[in-house]
Amino acid sequence: MPYDFDLFVIGGGSGGVRCARMAAGHGAKVAVAEEAAWGGTCVNVGCVPKKLMVMASEYGANVADSHGFGWNTQSGQHDWAALIAAKDAEIYRLNGIYKRLMANCTAFEGRARFIDPHTIEVAGQQVTAARIVIAVGGRPIIPDFAGAEHCIVSDDVFHMQTLPQRITIAGSGFIAVEFAGIFAGLGRQVDLIYRADLPLRGFDEDLRAGLAEAMASQGIRLHPGRTISSVSATKTVTLDNGDTLESDLVFSALGRKPYTGDLGLDAAGVKTGGMGSIPVDETNATNQPHIYAIGDVTNRINLTPVAIAEGHALADRLYGPGPRHWNLDRVAAAVFSSPPIATVGLTEIEAAANGPTDIYLEKFTPMRHTLSKRARKTIMKLVVDQVTQKVVGAHMLGEDAPEIIQGISIAINAGATKADFDRTVGIHPTAAEEFVTMRTRTRVAG
Predict the structure, then answer these.
(1) Rounded distance, CA 136 to CA 292, Å?
(2) In whole angstroms, how far apart are CA 152 and each of 1, 78, 219, 244, 397?
(3) How far apart are CA 108 and CA 110, in angstroms?
(4) 225 in the Ramachandran plot: left (φ > 0), alpha (ψ -120 to 50) or beta?
(5) pLDDT of 293-311, one tens digit each?
(6) What does the alpha-carbon distance between residue 240 and residue 288 come to, in Å, rounded to a whole number?
(7) Beta carbons within 8 Å of 415's beta carbon, 6+ residues apart
(8) In a designed cystine with 24, which of 30, 65, 157, 178 is the match (CB 3.0 to 4.6 A)?
(9) Would you say 372 and 69 are in contact if contact means Cβ atoms under 8 Å apart?
């Protein structure tokens, strides 16, 4: 039977837009539906506005640090409303760019739902498509403790017009530690509540410990091994051990989950997994061979560049000359905490589970802070397979870590050995040169 479209993409975020415009560029008749704002989470309530806030939070420390270099600069007062207005203007500009990228597609604004395996209802009309891509991303997890209705989640932060003085954050993942640094950098009192002994579960242990030390040195009050039992209407937070904290704002940052509710997946016969995620095979196909899922909705590697890569590869596979290939085994990632973390490849624990592993570790005061006197350390670490001598992991906590690890990730994806690192001449004086001057093995793991 004839269909209205060759491809219908549900979700106008980074992955969905890339898939749609690449497919249209290959000649397919494509439609895209977006219920909120074009660009999805990353552009509107994620990576982009969050990093703008990180940048804003750094200026106060820069003023203080400048005194060690002879400047007589004076700290001022931060205007949160002005930051939000400037952020909104930039996001509005990006929304327009994403919408213009859809010039060769039919754009629908509204929540799309399946009526049957080939029929979508959106914006009051029904359309059919030969193939459908689900790229709806995720939404914040709502906590289940008493008084959760008195808390905000990450999506809310970007629209607040005032920033209270006392802020309690529940969680210790990307979002929690990034906003802890943002709020502390803007002069707020921050309490961070988390169940584990260290923040950032799943990251390398040396970096986790280093970040906890760095956050404490900034005045962030850490509460490891604790959870929130309840929050009152007046923002009094009661912990599981009975302790209480008086707050002006309680921010739940307990992660995100796939946004698959009310999509009508049952009507399409699409199976779901944990937290509503959509299982897919190596081609991003669901259990329905003409329906695909990409990005965070699959709950695999929840990073914007991965969603973009998946969308591009899928469009090329379906309508182009052949699939484009990305290496998703060693994907670099960054946490824009204060200081930032960046990592690629295996952690020490992961590598040691595979066999003997050589660990090279450096911890030092970066040059800037030898004069600023700020209590901040940089940690750099290489994880090396002892048998092959391939560098299987690189991890860094410190200023410019994301910029540095991006280059290191190329070497690791190319299969570089420790000898390749050792014979590379460094750029002096930089922190990055430490990655090619670590000659003495710190320890053997595994």
Answers:
(1) 12
(2) 48, 22, 22, 19, 29
(3) 6
(4) left
(5) 999 999 999 999 999 999 9
(6) 44
(7) 390
(8) 30
(9) yes
| Residue reference for tokens 């003023």 | 63
- Which residue type sits at 390? K
Q: In this structure, are residues 299 and 273 in contact, taking their beta carbons and an 8 Å threshold?
A: yes
Q: Which domains are delineated in the chain? A: 5-140+257-319 (3.50.50.60), 148-254 (3.50.50.60), 339-445 (3.30.390.30)
Tokens of 301: 């590697």
Give whole-number Cα distances, 295 to 159, 255, 279, 292, 362, in Å.
25, 16, 11, 11, 35
pLDDT digits (tens, 9 = 90+) for 221-270: 999 999 999 999 999 999 999 999 999 999 999 999 999 999 999 999 99
Task: Give one DSSP letter per residue of 267-321, joined into a string.
Answer: HHT----GGG-----TTSB-SSTTEEE-GGGG-SS--HHHHHHHHHHHHHHHHSS
CB 438, CB 380: distance < 8 Å: yes
Choosing from 26, 159, 395, 428, the catalytic residue is 428
Contact in structure between 212 and 341 (CB atoms under 8 Å): no
User: What's the chain's average pLDDT?
Assistant: 97
What is the pLDDT at residue 206?
98
DSSP letter, residue 143: P
What tokens does 177 get? 């530690």
Residue 395 annotated in active site:
no
Quickly state the pLDDT bin for 319 (edges 50, 70, 90): very high
Determine contact, residues 313/322, Cβ cutoff 8 Å: no
Per 3-state DSSP, the chain is made up of helix, strand and coil in percentages (nearest 5) of: 35, 25, 40
